[in-house]
Design a protein that fits this description.
Blueprint: H1 2-25, H2 33-44, H3 53-78
Helix pairs in contact: 1-3
Length: 79
């Protein structure tokens, strides 16, 4: 029974991590790499950032932090 619970938890964590990783790279995500690139392009042209860069970075870091937490949780489940 405990193995089933661990399996379900592992699946849920892996699904959440995959979603977060997808959000970081997807061209439709509000925290996607494309927004960072658009800010970089604007700066290279001397234009203002098209997005709130500080907020973008905070949200991207929060996703990375959660990914790290999930990875740590998965390691604990493997023990």
């Amino acid at each position: 029974m405990n193995e089933d619970k661990d399996f379900a938890k592992r699946n849920a964590l892996n699904a959440e991590m995959a979603q977060l990783m997808s959000n970081l790279s997807a061209n439709t995500s509000s925290i996607g790499d494309w927004k960072v690139i658009k800010c970089y392009e604007a700066r290279m042209q001397g234009l203002p950032d098209p997005y709130d860069f500080d907020e973008l970075m905070v949200n991207r870091q929060a996703a990375r932090d959660r990914i790290n937490e999930i990875q740590a949780e998965l390691k604990k489940l493997d023990k």
